[in-house]
From TrEMBL:
Domain CAAX prenyl protease 2/Lysostaphin resistance protein A-like: start-end pairs: 137-235
Keywords: Hydrolase, Membrane, Metalloprotease, Protease, Transmembrane, Transmembrane helix
GO molecular function, one term: metallopeptidase activity
Residue ranges of the TM segments: 20-40, 60-81, 102-119, 139-163, 175-192, 198-218, 225-246, 266-285
Name of this protein: CPBP family intramembrane metalloprotease
């Protein structure tokens, strides 16, 4: 099987300069947004609460997600028209996109989140407000089921697909794109209200999540597991439980009323839950050659080097 990074050069037109504009555009917008928040000393959480009070939660959610439709569309057009690369080669090394992998990781994180939330709700009912409203939740469900996968897919295609392949082909290694895309994914969330509420420590969670998603992408030679996991995580979250200090303040089933603490809740996923998920996936999909897949060299046809087969389907 072809490896995930070099497939971009084999099935597309690889030129280093082609990878410059999309990161400059999207990450530039994120940087400007963050600088504006810092310079103007904006309380993002408070602003969002005011917007929800004025417009309603569903409209705020819709307005927050719509830009990602544009971002994903522009990224796909750039890859197709400029890189001459197929969507399949941006996604996976398999003969076709493996939807079973996407659904497996989607339901794994979704079921886990629902079960853990239920346990916590039963153990600490005083921390939650039952918020279910049939009409509002139905509208939220329609918005979320369509747009949240688009939002998460853009982030995955941009970081774990486009940048992972571009940086890997440019620097001819795997460790640098693995670490850099994870760091950039974490820093993208600096403008979230959670950062203002909990402090910089929450970046451990965001960067750790980026490392986990990068690891399963490289080890599985494709983005399917990352696509499903990210979509399941965000979709379950926005529908099941939100709070007035989170990035999405929706008409979810539950509202978390507890005062957040920057402690074990942040570290637990990174040091315990993600390793368990990684172990399950590794056993299920028979991952091998960990050192090569995560830290080995990258060979591409443009450098006249032989492409090394490092995995089995």
């Amino acid at each position: 099987m072809k490896d995930f990074i070099s497939i971009a050069a084999q099935e597309g037109s690889f030129k280093k300069w082609k990878y410059i504009l999309p990161p400059l555009g999207f990450l530039g917008l994120m940087a400007i947004n963050y600088l504006a928040i810092q310079l103007l000393q904006v309380d993002v959480g408070q602003v969002m609460q005011q917007e929800v009070a004025k417009k309603g939660a569903n409209r705020v959610v819709l307005e927050s997600l719509i830009p990602f439709v544009v971002f994903l569309g522009l990224l796909f057009l750039w890859v197709k028209l400029v890189h001459k690369q197929t969507l399949k080669s941006l996604t996976t090394t398999r003969k076709k996109i493996d939807w079973k992998r996407i659904l497996f990781s989607f339901f794994m994180i979704s079921v886990f989140t629902v079960v853990m939330t239920f346990i916590d709700y039963k153990s600490n009912p005083e921390n939650y407000l039952y918020n279910f409203n049939t009409e509002k939740f139905t509208i939220l469900f329609v918005i979320a089921i369509i747009l949240v996968p688009i939002q998460t897919s853009f982030e995955e295609y941009f970081f774990r697909g486009y940048l992972m392949q571009g940086l890997g082909l440019t620097f001819k290694n795997r460790w640098l794109p693995f670490l850099v895309t994870s760091l950039m994914f974490g820093l993208m969330h600096l403008g979230n209200p959670e950062v203002g509420k909990l402090g910089p420590i929450i970046m451990v969670y965001y960067i750790g999540t980026g490392l986990f998603l990068g690891l399963i992408t490289l080890m599985d030679e494709g983005m399917e597991l990352a696509l499903g996991f990210h979509a399941g995580n965000n979709l379950t979250g926005i529908l099941l439980v939100t709070a007035n200090w989170t990035a999405f303040q929706s008409d979810s089933i539950l509202k978390d009323m507890a005062e957040p603490e920057a402690g074990l809740d942040i570290l637990l996923p990174v040091i315990i839950i993600y390793p368990i998920f990684t172990f399950i996936m590794a056993k299920m999909y028979n991952w091998k050659n960990w050192k090569q897949k995560l830290f080995g060299r990258v060979y591409d046809s443009s450098s006249q080097e032989k492409i090394t087969t490092i995995s089995e389907s």
